[in-house]
Structure formats: C-alpha cells, structure tokens
Sequence to fold (306 residues):
Amino acid sequence: MKILCWNCQGLGQASTVQVLKSIVLQNAPDVLFLCETRLNKLRCERIHISLNMSNCFFVDSNPSCSGLAILWNNKISVDLLSYSAHHIDTIIKSDTFNFHFSGLHGYADTNHKYKTWQLIDHLQHASSLPWLLGGDFNEIIADNEKQGAPRRARSQIDNFPSQRRRKNFLKGLFDNNGLWHESEDGLMQISMGYFQTLFSSSNPDIPDSIINNIRVSITPAMNDRLSLPFTSNEITQAFREIDPRKAPGIDGLPSGFFRMHWELMGKDIIQLCQDLLSRTIDMASVNITILFLIPKIAEPTSMRHL
Fold:
C-alpha cells in the first residue's frame, strides 16, 4: 500500500495542480493526504475528479483552516474518526490488514506549537490498531532543516526532540519478583521471559475420558499422505502466499525481496525449509526475532504497559 502526504501550499494555481497530477501518476498512491489546499469543498471536488481518485473527504479552507483533504482509491475503504482544522483521523481497511492513519498539519504559530503535541497525544488513543502518523508537523529538530527566514530559537527546537524522546522513553521495568531493572541486559531478560511464558504451554493433563470421546477424522490413508515429505512446489507455493511486505527476517528483508530474487536464491530457501521440516537442522538456527517495546502508557514500569 502506498500513502502519499504533501503540503501543496495552495492548489489555486493550475501549475500546482499539474504538479500534483504528475506526482499521483508517477507514484499511484492508494491514499493521498493534502494539507494547505487553500480551497473550498467545491473546488477540491473538481481536483479530486481530475486525479481519478475514487473517494475523498475535505476540510474546507477558511480563516482558521488552510484546508485539508484525504483521497483514496477503491482498493481500500476509509472510516472517518474525527477531523479539525489541523487533522483528519481515519481507519484504513484493506483485504490484508487494517490500521489507524492520522493526517496532520501542525500549528504554524510558534506560540501554539505545543498544541500540535497535544493533538498527537489525543489521536494516539483513538484506536488500538497499528498507527501511522503523516503530514506536515510544521516543526524541525535541527537548524539545517530550515531554509530562509529567521533561525528558530534553540530552546524551541530542543523542546520538539525532547517531547518525542519523552513519549518513547523507557527508563526501566520491574521483573516478576518486583525488582527494578534499567540495564540493557536486565530489560532483555525481562522481555524474553515475558514472551516465553506467554507462548509456552502449561502441559495440562487431559483425561482419557475426553480423548476417547474425540471422533477420529483422519484415516490411515489420509495420514500417510500428510506424512509425506514436503515438495519443492508446496514450499514455493506457500512462500508466494506470504504478503510481500510482511514477515521480515532479522536482517529486515521482507518476503518480497526473496520473491524478487527467487531465481538466485530459491533453491537455497527450499533446501533450508526441507532441512528444517525434516529436522535435519535445528530450528533454533533461524528462530530469531527483534522485540520492539512500544509504551502503551506514559512512564511504563512493566511488560503489561508495552
């Protein structure tokens, strides 16, 4: 899925509209978020039609709003959660996954920039789905990001990064014994222990009276077929059914990378899968993952808060 966010700084000029058409043609976004359209709804509708995007929602330009728009194609559906002069908040749904998307246009007035962070803090609680925030924050974290006009006060720039860090900062965690840990090794052990416990079986005893009353549905012939070694075609087909954007490995490469270069590495992947399935090699050799600890609340202290 492609999402394109652009501060167009006004769509009143035909040249700007032509640039927008070119961008849409070249990138073919599924979702297009625009800020500072500086147009009313009627004029936005005309541009929406010219872009061949199937659906749209606009926030009119007025003295308190520079104008916002979100457009999307028929491959997805968009549910509107809320909107204002500075945001459009939605749930985006596709055949493969749903997520929370907020299009943002930050406050331009230096004295009101704190309201941008208040808005972000409010929006993050609108849904429990994965959240994508896009648009123009009207904020910088370094002077080299700004061209022209007076330089920003260092204190204002520092406030922006510090608020970002404060939102995502994890000072430490309590373990199961109530002991506080701040070291990287301590946090790693707590995280690993939490998920090992979460996904481990308690190995409950199942009475024979229950097992004996389970109807047999797999015949010996069916079991023989199910017990056959996996073929190269079966492994290839299973690999093709993985979403190309998902299932990245420890190296960060998603399945789409391997599909794109299947002629070079397909045989090796098939052989690896066959060795793992036949237990010729240990699953531990590839059973590696990266844990991202994302706080659900401010100042988390346990894994339940992540």
